[in-house]
Amino acid sequence: MKVGQQGRGPSIWARPQRGARGPSPEYRLADIAAAAIRLASAGGLAAVSMRAVAGELETTASTLYRYVASRDELLDLMVDTAMAGFSHTPESGADWLGELVGIAEATRSLYVAQPWLLDAVPTSSAPGPHTLAWFEHCLQAVAALDRTTLQKMEAVGVLNGVIMLFARSAAAPTAIDFGAVDPVRHPRLTAALTGAAPGRPTADLFERTIRALLGGLLDDRAG
Fold it and tell me: What are the boundaries of each domain within the chain?
Protein backbone atom coordinates (compact mmCIF):
# COMPACT_ATOMS: atom_id res chain seq x y z
CA MET A 1 0.00 0.00 0.00
CA LYS A 2 1.29 3.37 -1.00
CA VAL A 3 0.18 6.82 0.06
CA GLY A 4 0.10 9.45 -2.67
CA GLN A 5 -2.09 11.91 -4.52
CA GLN A 6 -3.36 12.10 -8.08
CA GLY A 7 -1.72 14.88 -10.01
CA ARG A 8 -4.77 16.14 -11.93
CA GLY A 9 -8.49 16.18 -11.29
CA PRO A 10 -10.42 14.65 -8.41
CA SER A 11 -9.42 11.17 -7.30
CA ILE A 12 -11.61 8.23 -8.17
CA TRP A 13 -13.01 8.30 -4.64
CA ALA A 14 -14.30 11.86 -5.06
CA ARG A 15 -16.30 10.96 -8.17
CA PRO A 16 -19.71 9.30 -8.40
CA GLN A 17 -19.60 5.52 -8.05
CA ARG A 18 -21.31 5.31 -11.44
CA GLY A 19 -19.93 6.89 -14.59
CA ALA A 20 -21.34 10.33 -15.30
CA ARG A 21 -20.17 10.98 -18.85
CA GLY A 22 -21.61 9.72 -22.10
CA PRO A 23 -24.75 7.55 -22.35
CA SER A 24 -26.64 6.32 -19.33
CA PRO A 25 -24.22 4.65 -16.88
CA GLU A 26 -24.09 0.87 -17.30
CA TYR A 27 -21.51 -0.08 -14.66
CA ARG A 28 -20.68 0.63 -11.07
CA LEU A 29 -17.10 0.97 -9.87
CA ALA A 30 -17.76 -2.19 -7.86
CA ASP A 31 -18.51 -4.07 -11.10
CA ILE A 32 -15.25 -2.89 -12.64
CA ALA A 33 -13.23 -3.80 -9.55
CA ALA A 34 -14.79 -7.26 -9.39
CA ALA A 35 -14.00 -7.93 -13.05
CA ALA A 36 -10.39 -6.80 -12.61
CA ILE A 37 -9.93 -8.91 -9.48
CA ARG A 38 -11.28 -11.98 -11.29
CA LEU A 39 -8.62 -11.50 -13.95
CA ALA A 40 -5.87 -10.94 -11.37
CA SER A 41 -6.92 -13.99 -9.36
CA ALA A 42 -6.80 -16.17 -12.46
CA GLY A 43 -3.70 -14.83 -14.19
CA GLY A 44 -1.90 -12.44 -11.86
CA LEU A 45 -1.68 -8.69 -12.14
CA ALA A 46 -0.10 -8.94 -15.59
CA ALA A 47 -3.45 -10.20 -16.88
CA VAL A 48 -5.14 -6.94 -15.86
CA SER A 49 -5.37 -4.21 -18.47
CA MET A 50 -8.09 -1.75 -19.37
CA ARG A 51 -8.81 -3.76 -22.53
CA ALA A 52 -8.92 -7.06 -20.63
CA VAL A 53 -11.25 -5.69 -17.97
CA ALA A 54 -13.49 -4.23 -20.67
CA GLY A 55 -13.61 -7.64 -22.32
CA GLU A 56 -14.53 -9.27 -19.00
CA LEU A 57 -17.44 -6.82 -18.76
CA GLU A 58 -18.33 -7.37 -22.44
CA THR A 59 -17.80 -3.75 -23.32
CA THR A 60 -15.06 -1.64 -24.89
CA ALA A 61 -11.99 0.00 -23.39
CA SER A 62 -13.31 3.41 -24.45
CA THR A 63 -16.45 2.77 -22.43
CA LEU A 64 -14.39 1.73 -19.42
CA TYR A 65 -12.46 5.02 -19.54
CA ARG A 66 -15.71 6.83 -18.74
CA TYR A 67 -15.45 5.30 -15.27
CA VAL A 68 -11.73 4.78 -14.63
CA ALA A 69 -9.24 7.28 -16.06
CA SER A 70 -6.08 5.13 -15.93
CA ARG A 71 -4.64 1.77 -14.94
CA ASP A 72 -3.33 3.38 -11.74
CA GLU A 73 -6.90 4.26 -10.81
CA LEU A 74 -7.91 0.72 -11.65
CA LEU A 75 -5.23 -0.64 -9.31
CA ASP A 76 -6.35 1.68 -6.50
CA LEU A 77 -9.91 0.48 -7.04
CA MET A 78 -8.84 -3.16 -6.94
CA VAL A 79 -6.69 -2.76 -3.84
CA ASP A 80 -9.37 -0.93 -1.91
CA THR A 81 -12.01 -3.47 -2.87
CA ALA A 82 -9.72 -6.26 -1.65
CA MET A 83 -8.95 -4.35 1.56
CA ALA A 84 -12.66 -4.42 2.37
CA GLY A 85 -11.94 -8.04 3.30
CA PHE A 86 -9.57 -6.98 6.09
CA SER A 87 -11.07 -8.08 9.36
CA HIS A 88 -9.50 -7.73 12.78
CA THR A 89 -11.17 -7.51 16.15
CA PRO A 90 -8.99 -5.81 18.75
CA GLU A 91 -8.11 -8.18 21.57
CA SER A 92 -9.33 -6.95 24.93
CA GLY A 93 -6.41 -5.86 27.07
CA ALA A 94 -3.83 -6.36 24.33
CA ASP A 95 -0.84 -4.03 24.42
CA TRP A 96 0.03 -1.91 21.40
CA LEU A 97 2.55 -4.41 20.09
CA GLY A 98 0.16 -7.34 20.48
CA GLU A 99 -2.46 -5.31 18.64
CA LEU A 100 -0.09 -4.66 15.73
CA VAL A 101 0.72 -8.37 15.59
CA GLY A 102 -3.01 -9.09 15.30
CA ILE A 103 -3.38 -6.54 12.51
CA ALA A 104 -0.36 -8.00 10.75
CA GLU A 105 -1.67 -11.56 10.91
CA ALA A 106 -5.04 -10.54 9.50
CA THR A 107 -3.36 -8.56 6.72
CA ARG A 108 -0.98 -11.38 5.85
CA SER A 109 -3.96 -13.76 5.51
CA LEU A 110 -5.57 -11.30 3.10
CA TYR A 111 -2.41 -11.02 1.01
CA VAL A 112 -1.90 -14.79 0.88
CA ALA A 113 -5.50 -15.26 -0.27
CA GLN A 114 -5.06 -12.62 -3.00
CA PRO A 115 -1.35 -12.67 -3.95
CA TRP A 116 -1.81 -10.17 -6.78
CA LEU A 117 -2.06 -7.53 -4.04
CA LEU A 118 1.69 -7.90 -3.48
CA ASP A 119 2.39 -6.46 -6.94
CA ALA A 120 -0.32 -3.80 -7.02
CA VAL A 121 1.79 -0.66 -6.64
CA PRO A 122 0.43 2.23 -8.71
CA THR A 123 2.86 4.88 -9.96
CA SER A 124 0.50 7.55 -8.64
CA SER A 125 -1.86 6.43 -5.92
CA ALA A 126 -4.96 7.73 -4.16
CA PRO A 127 -5.84 5.19 -1.44
CA GLY A 128 -9.51 4.48 -0.95
CA PRO A 129 -11.61 4.29 2.22
CA HIS A 130 -10.82 0.68 3.14
CA THR A 131 -7.10 1.20 2.59
CA LEU A 132 -7.17 4.34 4.72
CA ALA A 133 -9.07 2.45 7.42
CA TRP A 134 -6.15 -0.03 7.60
CA PHE A 135 -3.73 2.81 8.32
CA GLU A 136 -6.17 4.16 10.90
CA HIS A 137 -6.22 0.76 12.65
CA CYS A 138 -2.42 0.77 12.86
CA LEU A 139 -2.19 4.34 14.14
CA GLN A 140 -4.92 3.70 16.70
CA ALA A 141 -2.86 0.82 18.08
CA VAL A 142 0.09 3.13 18.74
CA ALA A 143 -1.88 6.26 19.62
CA ALA A 144 -0.79 6.29 23.27
CA LEU A 145 2.93 5.95 22.54
CA ASP A 146 5.16 8.95 23.13
CA ARG A 147 6.53 8.98 19.61
CA THR A 148 6.24 11.49 16.78
CA THR A 149 3.74 11.04 13.98
CA LEU A 150 6.64 10.52 11.57
CA GLN A 151 8.07 7.73 13.73
CA LYS A 152 4.68 6.04 13.89
CA MET A 153 4.13 6.29 10.13
CA GLU A 154 7.64 4.92 9.51
CA ALA A 155 6.84 1.98 11.77
CA VAL A 156 3.59 1.32 9.89
CA GLY A 157 5.59 1.29 6.65
CA VAL A 158 8.03 -1.22 8.15
CA LEU A 159 5.10 -3.32 9.36
CA ASN A 160 3.57 -3.45 5.90
CA GLY A 161 6.93 -4.36 4.39
CA VAL A 162 7.33 -7.30 6.78
CA ILE A 163 3.78 -8.46 6.09
CA MET A 164 4.40 -8.39 2.34
CA LEU A 165 7.72 -10.21 2.69
CA PHE A 166 6.19 -13.09 4.64
CA ALA A 167 3.06 -13.19 2.46
CA ARG A 168 5.16 -13.36 -0.70
CA SER A 169 7.18 -16.21 0.77
CA ALA A 170 3.99 -18.08 1.66
CA ALA A 171 2.43 -17.48 -1.76
CA ALA A 172 5.52 -18.63 -3.67
CA PRO A 173 7.85 -20.70 -1.45
CA THR A 174 11.46 -20.77 -2.62
CA ALA A 175 13.39 -24.04 -2.53
CA ILE A 176 17.11 -23.52 -1.91
CA ASP A 177 19.55 -26.18 -3.10
CA PHE A 178 22.56 -26.28 -0.76
CA GLY A 179 24.22 -29.05 -2.77
CA ALA A 180 27.30 -26.91 -3.47
CA VAL A 181 28.10 -26.41 0.21
CA ASP A 182 31.69 -27.45 0.95
CA PRO A 183 32.36 -28.48 4.58
CA VAL A 184 35.91 -27.10 4.31
CA ARG A 185 35.05 -23.73 2.81
CA HIS A 186 31.70 -23.33 4.59
CA PRO A 187 32.13 -25.00 7.99
CA ARG A 188 29.58 -22.82 9.79
CA LEU A 189 26.95 -23.23 7.10
CA THR A 190 27.58 -26.97 7.02
CA ALA A 191 27.14 -27.17 10.78
CA ALA A 192 23.96 -25.10 10.62
CA LEU A 193 22.46 -27.28 7.88
CA THR A 194 23.51 -30.49 9.60
CA GLY A 195 21.97 -29.42 12.88
CA ALA A 196 18.83 -27.90 11.37
CA ALA A 197 15.62 -29.72 12.19
CA PRO A 198 13.69 -30.84 9.10
CA GLY A 199 10.43 -29.19 8.14
CA ARG A 200 9.15 -25.64 8.08
CA PRO A 201 10.55 -22.69 10.08
CA THR A 202 9.09 -22.06 13.50
CA ALA A 203 5.51 -20.87 13.26
CA ASP A 204 6.08 -17.78 15.38
CA LEU A 205 8.89 -16.32 13.24
CA PHE A 206 6.43 -13.81 11.76
CA GLU A 207 5.33 -12.59 15.17
CA ARG A 208 8.86 -12.55 16.58
CA THR A 209 10.07 -10.47 13.61
CA ILE A 210 7.32 -7.89 14.06
CA ARG A 211 7.86 -7.66 17.80
CA ALA A 212 11.62 -7.26 17.41
CA LEU A 213 11.46 -4.63 14.67
CA LEU A 214 8.57 -2.52 15.93
CA GLY A 215 9.58 -2.91 19.54
CA GLY A 216 12.95 -1.41 18.64
CA LEU A 217 11.38 1.39 16.62
CA LEU A 218 8.58 2.45 18.94
CA ASP A 219 9.17 1.15 22.45
CA ASP A 220 8.95 4.06 24.90
CA ARG A 221 12.03 2.73 26.67
CA ALA A 222 14.10 2.86 23.47
CA GLY A 223 16.31 5.82 22.72
Answer: 12-83, 96-218
